[in-house]
Amino acid sequence: MDVFPQTWEIIDRFKGWCQSKGWKASDREDWINMGDEYHNFLWIQTIHPSTFEKVAMNSRCAIREGNSYRVVDVSYNAWLCSKSPPELLIHEIAKKPKLLKKNAIYDLSRAYSGDKPICIKLNRTDSIVFQEFETFLEKEWKVKLKQFQSRPILRASA
Known about the structure:
Elements: H1 7-19, E1 24-25, E2 31-34, E3 37-44, H2 49-57, E4 60-65, E5 68-73, E6 76-81, H3 87-94, H4 97-102, E7 103-107, H5 109-113, E8 118-123, H6 128-141, E9 144-147
Parallel strand pairs: 3-6, 6-7, 8-9
Antiparallel strand pairs: 1-2, 2-3, 4-5, 7-8
Helix pairs in contact: 1-6
């Protein structure tokens, strides 16, 4: 592999991987349906912690059915970051178990900037789809997954 693929290509290929397992994958949107759970993939460059929390806590997704749409509750969100997410975001999420149960963050910035594809992850969900996504990254793209390491944030003293 000479160049690490764009995020849309990774998701597109992963949707094919999921369909081979019998899971339903949207051909237009970036979600996977397994049973009664929807797993949504959001690709972003950067996000503010308050915006992340609003989207993560009120997670809904429009599902296209023919010429119309219906809205479903999303069970899990995977946030695919092409740039490193703000350190403050990681610290804020780490303090909120409710967010951690439903949201995984995959920092792909090092895969785009280095010789060896590395993905830093924060995934404490019990999503089988996200576990399969990690396997897919390792097998298909030779990505080495590493856990986010929590570092204390230094604040200016008054």
